[in-house]
Amino acid sequence: MPQKLNYEKQRGKELEMETVERTWAEEPFHQTERPFRILTEQVDQGVTLVQDGKFVLVNGVFASMLGYTDSKQLIGKRPAELISTDFDQGIKEMYGSVESGIPREKTFRMPCLTQEGRKSCVEGHHNIIKWNNRPAILTTFRDIGQGRLGEIPIREETGHLQRENNKTIPDISNHNRFGNIIGKSQAMQEVYDLISKTAASDSNVLIYGESGTGKELVARAIHDTSKRRDRAFVPVNCGAIPETLLESEFFGHTKGAFTGAYIDKHGYLDLAHGGTLFLDEVAELVPGMQVKLLRAIDLREYTPVGSSKPKTSGFRVIAATNRNLMDQVNRGLMREDFFYRIHIIPITLPSLRDRKEDMPLLIDHFLHLYADGKKPTTIPEKILDAMYNYHWPGNIRELQNVLHRYLTVKRLDFLNFGSPNQPVRADGVSVKKLTQQNNNLCVAIENVEKALISKALDQTHWNRTKAALLLGISRRALFRKIKNLGII
Fold it and tell me: Which of 143, 274, 298, 350 is 20 to 30 A away from residue 456, measured at CA?
């Protein structure tokens, strides 16, 4: 008997709501607030009327569901303001499409936010009616409680996740590329996966890879698919800044801080506020600058040169290097605490010789790039064979340059300065000959060093970056040695 009474009571409520909806649907020209109140205040379900995207009428039950004492507090609000932010876009789309007359399912479930900020799940049922001769949405609501939050239909949650992915992560179903990065090899698929996962977090990233593997492209892809994509991406070549200017370049300076400081200047950290600070060739930073950056990374606080007032910056660090940084730590060239601060998510990029199956895609990309809208040049088979058999010490950057030269002079011209695994030798000059002129160890070492550097410079046509790569030293160290040894 009690079950029958409960059923009849529930069925009676449903009939009451059906009467409300039917009455409003059938009498489009006589709706005023008074009959709305009379009809809706007699039922124990929430009732709202939305027109032009805002609540125009709300009953007391719906207001009470959300912790409001007066239904007038909700008049003029938009439905999305009362929905958990996880589903705000979905509710906007739903109300927008229904009001426009686009067919949708009439019943839905959504997590609402009460006036106190807690979540409570409601089930709604909407109908299109006429209000003042214009379309409006009449919705009835039933509170299904906080405990039912997990029972929101999977399609709603899936739709939300899909919308979020569309805003941040590019379509990687096309495995041939990720943004501006090209490659379909397994090694690159793993890189794409790491980029997607890293973009969803806010952790610092360290990208490893040989020169020319596309470290900056990966850094930009992470930034462009993250929530920081609307803010600045600030690239910094750590090896190109004189040591005396490092602090000023990173933290900025005030007018009069030093000779030549005629105006206040923003530093890289100012520019990267809310965005991404990309530290290229991070191994070139001297330990003194590492400790200052470490504090800025930890506390998001720094002080411009010449100022006593600290500033803050909410930046994310993505660093890149072609070195073994743990070896740098062991040799005392990098602070251990700085290393662990930037080495949170490591990404290692494969060399071109380790993913030669990507070469057809890369060659095709560059040929179209240089075709300038015309039909791309066809590469003869013997030229392609030569490219596949080459070891590409300069990786993708070298491939691009070789193709550019080929298209310009119609001649395949490899730099041919040896594999990174093959050290430069002072060909034609024996160590015995270099040392027999003087028994002084320092002079002998200097002679050998000069011969090796000269040979590397000759092989790379004085491309100092590539010469430094061959010699296994930094570009800054190479510049210093060229100057000290008087190499011309």
Answer: 350
CA torsion sign, 462 to 464 to 469 to 470? positive
The order of strands in the sheet holding 54-58 is 54-58, 46-51, 134-145, 119-131, 107-113
Cα–Cα dist 83/78, whole Å: 10
pLDDT, tens digit (0-9, with 9 covering 90-100), for 427-438? 434 444 444 555
What count of residues does the chain have? Answer: 488
Q: Which residues are CB-contacts of 2 (< 8 A; sequence separation ≥ 6)?
A: none
**Higher pLDDT, residue 324 or 169:** 324
Alpha-helical runs (H) found in 252-378: 268-271, 287-299, 325-330, 336-342, 359-371
Cβ atoms within 10 Å of 201's Cβ, excluding its own: 14
β-pair type (233-237, 276-280): parallel
Q: What is the mean pLDDT of the segment spanning 91-111?
A: 58
Cα 298 from Cα 320, distance rounded (Å): 19
- Which residue's structure tokens are 């124990």? 44
Two tokens, residue 435: 């040392």
Output DSSP code: residue 224.
Answer: H
Q: What is the pLDDT of residue 359?
A: 92
Q: How many CB atoms lie within 10 A of CB 385?
A: 10
**Longest pairwise C-alpha distance within the chain:** 116
Closest CA to 209 of 402, 396, 387, 336: 396
Summarised one tens digit per residue, pLDDT across range 267-314 is: 999 999 999 999 999 999 999 999 999 999 998 899 999 998 999 999
At position 232, the amino acid (one-letter code) is A
- 312 secondary structure, DSSP code: E
The full set of domains in the chain, from first to last, is 2-165 (3.30.450.20), 177-348 (3.40.50.300), 355-409 (1.10.8.60), 431-485 (1.10.10)
